[in-house]
Amino acid sequence: KKQLADIESEILRMLSESQGEILDDEELINALAASKSTSSAIEVRMVDAQRTVKEINALREQYRVVANRGSTLYFVVADLARVDPMYQYSLLYFTNLYRQRIVKSEKNDDLQKRLQILLADIVRSTYVNICRGLFEKDKL
């Protein structure tokens, strides 16, 4: 879009500085021809970019269930501080744990299976890591 705006500004500048017949100004005609081809190429790239953005957004939406589970788990873990003040876990700790599980969990080409693997792995890993830090009196 910026490139199109720059081209438009340049053409307007040339038009305002033009002396005599506009059709006789070769530099202006060449600039118009170049701007036409450039704008066509930019338009094609913008359409591709918009399509890519839509694909990314659709895929990101499918992962929302994993994000919601992570959010729920974080707030449950954060509430453990109500049981004992020693059970305070930072957002950074939880985020690192979450990211680690995304990287280390089993990969699968089927998105639904991948989501189920992520959900199970993140819950299990959070449980194991938090249980490791609980006092004996608070364990079930």
Structure description:
- The protein has 140 residues and is mostly helical.
- The chain has helices spanning 2-17, 26-62, 64-78, 91-104, 111-132.
- Helix 1 runs antiparallel to helix 2 (26-62) and helix 3 (64-78) runs parallel beside helix 5 (111-132).
- The longest helix is centred in the first third of the chain and has 37 residues, at 26-62.
- The chain is elongated and about 95 Å long.
What descriptive keywords fit this protein?
140 residues; 0% strand; mainly alpha; elongated
Number of helices: 5
Shape call: elongated
Question: What is the mean predicted local confidence, pLDDT?
Answer: 89
Query: What is the β-strand count?
Result: 0
How does the helix and strand content classify structurally?
mainly alpha
The parts where pLDDT drops under 50 for at least 5 residues are none
H/E element sequence: HHHHH
Show the helix and strand layout.
Elements: H1 2-17, H2 26-62, H3 64-78, H4 91-104, H5 111-132
Helix pairs in contact: 1-2, 3-5, 4-5
Summarize the structure.
By secondary structure, this protein is mainly alpha-helical. It has 5 helices and no strands.
